[in-house]
Amino acid sequence: MPAQSPIRVAVHGAAGRVGREGLPAVEAAPDLELTAAIDPPAPERLPPGVPPDPHAADALRERPSDVLIDFTNAAASLAMAPRALEAGARPVIGSTGFTDAQVGELAELVRAHGLSGVLAPNFTIGAVLLMRLASIAARYFDYADVAEEHHETKVDAPSGTALAIARAVHAGRAERFQRNHPEREPLPGSRGAAFEGIAIHAARMPGKMANHQVTFGGPGQTLTLRHETINRECYMPGVLLAARKVGELQGLVVGLDALLDL
Ligand SMILES: NC(=O)c1ccc[n+]([C@@H]2O[C@H](COP(=O)([O-])OP(=O)(O)OC[C@H]3O[C@@H](n4cnc5c(N)ncnc54)[C@H](O)[C@@H]3O)[C@@H](O)[C@H]2O)c1
Hints:
Layout: E1 7-12, H1 17-28, E2 32-38, H2 56-62, E3 67-70, H3 74-86, E4 90-93, H4 100-112, E5 116-119, H5 125-137, E6 143-150, H6 160-171, E7 193-195, E8 198-204, E9 210-218, E10 221-227, H7 236-245, E11 251-254
Parallel strand pairs: 1-2, 1-3, 3-4, 4-5, 5-11, 6-8
Antiparallel strand pairs: 6-9, 7-8, 9-10
Helix pairs in contact: 3-4, 5-6
The structure holds nicotinamide-adenine-dinucleotide.
């Protein structure tokens, strides 16, 4: 049987924190081939030995790619998606910050080209599993607290993943969670933010990357599910899985869970 040709992968946002992690991950995978490292705003930040591709559209025309991995931002990702699809590259998007309307726009674009794509706000397999396990546990407990910790430069709080965990926990239970409302609160906000009776707490400090946990409470017992990450390599198994599977999908698939066969 002839050996299968490798999946050709371009990386958009290749000089960024996650993009720079993607280059060696693609290069190390025997079934993937790195075709282009695209980051027009910061070619000087690409790792040594990686030739910069100043013009994204040219790069994809000159070096045909099956997949475009994107870790830039919502605006850059939306601008790049039509060019990638026109060149036949299926987008695997990790950028965050899309509105629901923009996700709809992306889905329509992918459909119009008769191709497929993946958009996953969280590519860590552990966090996706945490959400699924939390939604199972939710119906057996009356109290739930979500706590997240991130690096000090994160722009939003709580994280999108903490909100997604709270939504999954809420969806796993018919009734609203119980919540203690203090009679006195010398420091307002001490009980954290609230989503459907679930308290959410966010910490920001150097030394942390992205950690999430949910603790459920019931009579005489608690259950804590916790996911920790120590570096951006954590996204790569999920990203590579999406790069390998995107060719078998139809339309835009949102969320890594859809690829995990849970
Ligand atoms: N889905 C996930 O699991 C996940 C994980 C981490 C980060 N993110 C998201 O991924 C994105 C990137 O995160 P990061 O920490 O690597 O950010 P970063 O700022 O380190 O990197 C972003 C890169 O995109 C480049 N860029 C900006 N505009 C561009 C454009 N128009 N064309 C091409 N490149 C452009 C920048 O030069 C930069 O190198 C963010 O939206 C972040 O929220 C998602």
